[in-house]
Each structure stands twice: as structure tokens, then as C-alpha cells.
Amino acid sequence: MLERKIYSVSQINRYIKGVLENDIILSGIWVKGEISNFKKHSSGHMYFTLKDSDGAISAIMFKVDAMMMPYVPENGMSVIVYGYISLFEKTGQYQLYAQIMEPAGLGSLAAAYEQMKKRLEEEGLFDNDFKREICPAPKKIAVITSPTGAAIRDIINVSHRRNPAVEIVVIPVLVQGERAADDIVQAIKDVNAWNKADTIILARGGGSIEDLWAFNEEKVARAIFASNIPVISAIGHETDFTIADFVSDMRAPTPSAAAELAVNDVYSDIYYLDALKVRLDYAFDSFLSMQQSKVEMLMKSVSPKSFQQRLSNEEMYVEKLIMRTENSVNSLLKDSEYMYMSLTDKLHMLSPLNVLKRGYSVLYDKDMNTVTSAKEIEEGGRYVLQLKDGQADMLAGKVEM
Question: 9-106 in CATH: which number?
Fold first, then answer.
């Protein structure tokens, strides 16, 4: 009888893990599916389920690979994942260990762009309420761009053509590559700290989404939003849109257009002022001529004799007005005096003293409260009797009612 070979659970799991990892297909495989149950752990690892209409597989992407992704996966997102199939020995569960993840039908940078745009828009960074007004007549303009690119040459040429008095200050930065975003952020901060520029132009020439990616970085968007100096963005060609364009106070389709928006046309301004001066001179001359005509007509219509007659009429009118006023005042005084005498007589008739003169008296108790009933008098109590010409203290005897 053959001796039985007995394996432990961990041995079985280890064996299956080795089979899976050594399989020519499962050791490096692309898998397409929809993400569900997504969770990004505090450790940086990402756990999720990849599913289709007929099945599902657990998946994990370790922090070292997750950090390389320009976007964050979301539930419901259709993706293509590259990795290998292995088994987690402690639970005996096989899963996909993802190393690369791309949105299905959409590049990873495009997905990251749409994610960033949606999130910053929800935060309000694109709201018109926060847009600053571009200075209409600047003295200094700070241009943040590559010092060797065509963008800066276009901006300088257009600016000098429109207004040679405007000073263009170039802030050289990297506009492409890993360090470009940090360079741009620092330049925006430096211009604000300098605090002498009226406007900032953030510019670079055209390119692919990878070339323009520095202007889609969240740190650049927040630096533009935090700037106290208005920012005009001129990134890429007319059809290129970056996150920086949405956050900036104004977007220009090209660097040349940015210069036209930022720099006032001094020659047009001079022409406008000259035309305005001519209009004002004409208006003033017309007004002066009209007023002079009115004065001449008035002088002709008013002779010394008619003026004296008008003055006499006004004097008579004033005298009549004074007499009417005096009569009204005297009548009012008489009416007031009559009303006063009438009220005085009524008060005199109602006065308690007047009643006392007719032989009546008032009895008060010791607290000088008026006694109005015999019931209030106590035998042997002390009282005050008020007569018309004085008071008398009294001691109450027997009270009869």
C-alpha cells in the first residue's frame, strides 16, 4: 500500500502561487475591465475589483506603481491594466497585481486632465466672481515663459508696437519637463513678492498634451488663483486648452494676442483723446455762443425804465405780503389769548380752593390722605381739617353714621 503524501495548506498555496507566477501568459498580462470597490489605503496601495459582465477579479496596485499614475482611478472607470496573476498565500485568494493602468479609450494624461478640471471647477477656482480686472494702462508687465522661445519674441514685438513706454520684464522658467511646474509656481510667487508688475502673462508655444502638461498641474493652478496680480494665460495654440487657462483671469489664444490684451494701444489712445478734445472744444464754443446770445436777447428786452417799473411792482408785492403776515400773526395771537383766558376760568372753577371758599372743608388723616367716608374715621384718632384760610388739628370723638 502506497504511503499517503499529505500537504499543508500553506504548501498548497505556495505551490499554486508558483504555478501562476511561472505561467507564460499569467506572468505578464493585459486585462480590460471596469473598476469597482476602489479603495486607496493610507499606505499608498490601491485595492479594487476589476469586472466585466460575466466575472470579476480582485486586484491590487502597490504604492511604488500607484505613484507613477497621473490620475486617480474611480469606480465605474473602464481601464486596461498590465500586471501578473499571483496568489495571496494567507487567504488562498488569487488576484491581479497591477503595475500599469490606462483608461480604456482615453489616454492617462487626458483622464488626469478631465479629473483635475472637474475637481477644481467644483472648488470654484474657475468662477468669474474671482476673476481680477486686467489693468487698462499698465506700466510694467511680467512675462513668465521660456527666454528662448518664440512666445517671448512675439510678446515683445507686439507690446513695443502698441506702447513703447510699457516695460516688459521677462521671468525665465522651464515650460516643459518634470521641474517646469515648480519653476512656474516660484515665478508667480516671485512676481507677487516684487509687487511692481501690473499684469502677468503666462505663455509658451504649442505642443502635445505631454509638452503642455506643466500648465495642467494643480500646483500651478493654485498659484495662479492665489496671485494678487491679474494673470493672462497664452498657452499653446488657439485650440489648446489647459487648466491654467480656466483659472487665469483672461485667456489669450496666442502669445501675440496676450500682448494685445495686456498692453493698451497708445496711438489709438492719443487719437481718441485728440478726437475727444475737438468734440469738447466744439461743445464749449457752442455753449458759450448760446449763452452769449441769451444775454444779448435779455439785454435788448430789458430797458432801464421797464426794469425800474418791475422793481417797483416787486416792492409793492413785498409790502402787501408783510401786511398780510402781520394781520395773520395778530389774529393768531388774539385767538390764543382768548383760548388761554377760557382755560384759566375753567381751571379756577374746578380748583379745590375755590370749593373751600364756599364753606366746604377737607379732612385728612395723620398721613395726609383724604378722608372721604365716616367709616374711615377712628374714635380718638388725630386728623387735620383743611379750611379755606388754614388747617386745624382735630381729635375724633364718637363717630355716628
Answer: 2.40.50.140
